């Protein structure tokens, strides 16, 4: 039993053994019946506690396919309510006016009630113009990182072990889509993840790595506000690549200027670096396409690149790749 912030208790189980023999759930079509535990599977969820043995008749977190099954279920429940957005058990309701919001906050709970979903009112917020959702602050203007996360990274001490470095990289890479060219900025730090640095405390000790560490912390503090997509705004993907990383920004044309919607960056492997400035590479476009895929469905957009190889020497693989995606 794990204590919650509210003072209540959360039952948990160790399902490492069960998860190892569970087939991963990749089926895309929603199945509402997946919300409950099948009768024959209930004994598999048994846990031992100081209070006795317990079996779960409803899905619980910790099982390998719990998140996927619940996401399919909640998508099915809310599928015809376009003003609702669900990420597993976090549900956002967006309205343009107070009158709309009153209607929406009646419709969603009613839909939950119809499907036997119980909500906790103490964990809900209604009628607010700004809120925290999935680790970000969301308001009518856009999305930005949480001040407490910015402060935690700003005061993060220089890593002296690989474990602490991995922890720092995990924290800041959570905001990869908010910080432009983050992979390039962090590139001097990745070498310290190699085997030769496994048992040393000479981590982030060179001038360039210390500078990269400090710059990365500052970058999140200076992060650009990401706007909300406007359905009638022209879209563009601007890409660039260096010797160590590639990056891109998905942006929209609003009020006579480009407004960023999301950033993408990726560290290049040694074999990929050799192609960047010689012939150009289609992955400079395909990687951002895959990342921004859901934002580009059923709309037109344009590409631009800040360096020249693809412009001066068109890449056949790029043309094939873009054509292949044009009917999806």
UniProtKB/TrEMBL annotation:
GO terms for molecular function: catalytic activity. InterPro entries: DNA/RNA_pol_sf, Retrovirus_Pol_polyprotein, Rev_trsase/Diguanyl_cyclase, RT_dom, RT_RNaseH_2. Gene3D superfamilies: 3.30.70.270, HIV Type 1 Reverse Transcriptase, subunit A, domain 1. The keyword Metal-binding does not apply. Residues 1-138 form the Reverse transcriptase domain. Keywords: Multifunctional enzyme. The keyword Nuclease does not apply. PROSITE patterns: RT_POL (PS50878). This is Reverse transcriptase domain-containing protein.
């Amino acid at each position: 039993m794990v204590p919650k912030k509210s003072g209540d208790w959360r039952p948990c189980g160790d399902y490492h053994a069960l998860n190892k023999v569970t087939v991963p759930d990749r089926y895309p079509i929603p199945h509402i019946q997946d919300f409950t535990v099948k009768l024959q599977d209930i004994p598999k969820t048994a846990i031992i506690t100081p209070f006795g043995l317990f079996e779960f008749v409803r899905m619980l977190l910790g099982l390998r396919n719990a998140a996927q099954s619940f996401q399919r279920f909640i998508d099915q429940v809310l599928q015809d309510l376009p003003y609702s957005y669900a990420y597993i058990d976090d549900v956002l309701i967006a309205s343009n006016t107070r009158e709309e919001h009153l209607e929406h906050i009646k419709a969603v709970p009613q839909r939950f009630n119809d499907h036997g979903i119980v909500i906790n009112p103490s964990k809900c917020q209604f009628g607010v113009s700004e809120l925290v959702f999935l680790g970000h602050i969301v308001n009518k203007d856009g999305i930005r990182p949480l001040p407490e996360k910015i402060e935690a990274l700003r005061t993060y001490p220089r890593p002296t072990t690989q474990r602490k470095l991995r922890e720092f990289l995990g924290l800041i890479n959570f905001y990869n889509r908010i910080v432009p060219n983050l992979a390039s900025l962090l590139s001097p730090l990745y070498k310290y993840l190699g085997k030769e640095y496994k048992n040393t405390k000479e981590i982030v000790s060179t001038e360039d790595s210390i500078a990269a560490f400090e710059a990365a912390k500052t970058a999140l503090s200076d992060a650009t506000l990401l706007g909300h997509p406007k359905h009638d705004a022209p879209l563009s993907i601007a890409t660039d690549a260096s010797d160590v990383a590639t990056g891109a920004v998905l942006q929209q044309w609003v009020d006579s200027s480009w407004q960023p919607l999301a950033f993408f960056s990726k560290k290049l492997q040694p074999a990929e670096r050799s192609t960047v400035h010689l012939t150009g590479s289609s992955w400079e476009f395909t990687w951002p396409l895959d990342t921004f895929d859901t934002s580009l469905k059923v709309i037109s957009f344009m590409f631009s690149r800040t360096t020249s190889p693809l412009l001066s020497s068109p890449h056949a693989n790029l043309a094939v790749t873009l054509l292949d995606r044009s009917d999806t």
